[in-house]
Design brief:
By secondary structure, the protein is α/β, with parallel strands linked by helices. The chain is about 40% helix and about 20% strand. It has 9 helices and 7 strands. The radius of gyration is 17 Å and the shape is globular. It starts with a helix and ends in a 9-residue tail after the last strand.
Amino acid sequence: MLIRLLKNWYKVLLSVFGPRRCAGCGQIAEEGLLCGVCRAALRQPLWLPARDALDGAGMLFRYSGALKTALQKVKFDSRREILELLAEEYCQFSAADWPGVLRGILHRRAVIIVPIPTVRQRVKARGFDIPLVLFEKPGAGHCLTPALARTRETLPQYDLRPLERRLNLEGCFAVTQNVAGKTVVVVDDIFTTGATMEEAAKALKAAGAAEVYGLAFCGSIENYGAGQ
């Protein structure tokens, strides 16, 4: 409660002493990182079909423009304040605007939302775990269940080819909670080849999960499924 009040006061102070500017065009932004026009231009509520253990995946935004720049600053410069604005963007995306398949899945009773865990060294260096901050927001309509853990350190994915990504991730996740018979939605900040979510789905299915779907904040699907 105290944190929420402090954030509301911070918004008031910003509105008085310096209005928030859109990271895309520089115009005034009421909420989040973007103005309404730039937000609409980057929205991409896509649904991708099943592949391997993953029963399908959705994404909300395109990984380009101001969002790509913002996420790079979060990842490489540890800019948590930018991540907080991205989390506001996530909350701006109402369930009615999500891919229809995903809306139906989230209305089921036995659904749990599981963040993809980040390598511990990177969490320690940044001081925060990106999926946890991005998706665990008041008003988002769900709570996160940390049912996955990393069994070993892995290399950063961004410099690896599609096949190298899959080999890098092989066997890196362990299930830490009971998921037997449940529908699981794994969430992550960026979706490209799908390798991370597919490896997470493999571990969850092995632990008895009935279905595993993915949700990414943003994505670039040109390499989806590459490296098989």
